[in-house]
Structures are given as structure tokens and as C-alpha cells.
Amino acid sequence: MRRYWDKKARENAMYYIQSELDYAHVDRNEFWASGDDSLARTLSPFDLSVQPTDEVVDIGCGIGRTTRALATKARHVIGVDVSLEMVERGRKELADLGNVELLLGNGRDLSGIGDASVDVVYSFIVFQHIPDPAITCEYIQEIGRVLRPGGWTVFQVSELPEIHHREMWRGSESVRTRAMRLLGRAPRGTLAPEWLGSALSHDQLVGALDDAGLVLAASVGEGSQFCLVHARRPL
Ligand SMILES: C[S@@+](CC[C@H](N)C(=O)[O-])C[C@H]1O[C@@H](n2cnc3c(N)ncnc32)[C@H](O)[C@@H]1O
Asked: How many CB atoms lie within 10 A of CB 138?
């Protein structure tokens, strides 16, 4: 995963983080504005907001798109990412913020973050890219470990297995896109397992939350790629 995401960071970090952008003409302002938008859209279904006293963790922070949005609201944010290239770019991008720390993670847990030390754990469009759902379950276990009693999490997970199969996408590309790729003007490597990722079934999700000592408060988009989960660590 590190090798893949390091390569994507060097190729076009903003595009691979927010793939609705134009690959050949990435608009920085659009990229950063999309972080505020993603945060608002993922918290509003649960009527949640980050508080000025909150210590927050952003799993799979990339170069800090959502981390920046979280940092404008929280006391302190720790972003964790498997890619050193993403983390290094993120540190430069967020250098103007005094309340953010970006950590290089090992791709499967939240080592370096203490037990019961954070108020909020957030993650968006990360678990859907992890090829092995057992790793996503490990992260859920880790969310339970680092949250203080009464703390909450919102994360996105895919519950749509078919979109993670190579066969679904192979051959679906136009000749124009293939030509653009040869010219370096279209994305590469989107059939790799590290991009295609994996889904969890709703039962797997509920089991992982339970094992982590987390209580599912609500979820939206069940059965879709964008299943948003809100869970709490009980007091
Ligand atoms: C599509 S980007 C999303 C970045 C950020 N969450 C956002 O919404 O702006 C996916 C990010 O997850 C990171 N990532 C992929 N697999 C990971 C893993 N196993 N552990 C931690 N980060 C991972 C990648 O390096 C990349 O920065």
C-alpha cells in the first residue's frame, strides 16, 4: 500500500485524493474547498460537529484535505497515513496550521496514539481502498482503543463488493482515455488492488464495531460504496 500511494502522491496527489478533479488541470482551490464540503456532508447526517476542545484523529489523511477542515474546528488533529510521500507533502501544505501533526502509519493500526486519548476519529475514502477487509476491521479495533469513553467516530466504508472487482472496470474505458493515459494526461493504476480496495458486509461492520467496544449510533448509505458510520465508545 505504501509503494502504491507513494507513487500516486508523486504522480498527482490531489487527483488521487479527490478523483472528481480534472486530472490534467487540478484546481488547488477546488481541492481545498472540497475538504470542507466532504467534512460537512459526512457529519451533517448525524447532526455532529467537532468542538474547539476536541483532539481528533484523521485516518488516511493524504496531504491533509480533510485534516485542514477538521483543524479549523478542533483543538488538535493528528493525521495518519501509510504513504510517506503523502505525509511529507501534507506537512508542507499544512505548515500554516499550529494544531496539526501528520504521522506516517504502518497501514494497519494507530501505533503512536495512546489508549483513550482522543475525542473524535474520522476517516473518509480510505477504507474503501484497502485491499483486505481484515485490515479495515483492525482499524475499527484501533478506533475503539484510542477513543476516550464518550468519544465518537464517523468513517466511510464501502458495502458494495462488486465495484472492487477488476472485471467490473476492465474494458470499460474509452479509446480517448487510453490515448490520454499514454500522453500522461489521464490516471494510471486504477485497476490495482490498492486502488480497487474492498468492501465490508454490514454484518462484518457490526461485528467489528462490537469487537472494538463501539456502539453503532447510526449509519447512512448501507449497501452502497458510501456507507457512513457513526459509532460511540460508551462512557
Ligand atoms: C483517496 S485518499 C483520501 C485522503 C483523505 N482521507 C481525504 O479525504 O482527503 C486515500 C488515502 O488513504 C491512504 N491510505 C491508503 N491505504 C491506507 C492504509 N492502509 N492506512 C492508512 N492510510 C492509507 C492513502 O495513502 C491516501 O492518502
From this structure: 18
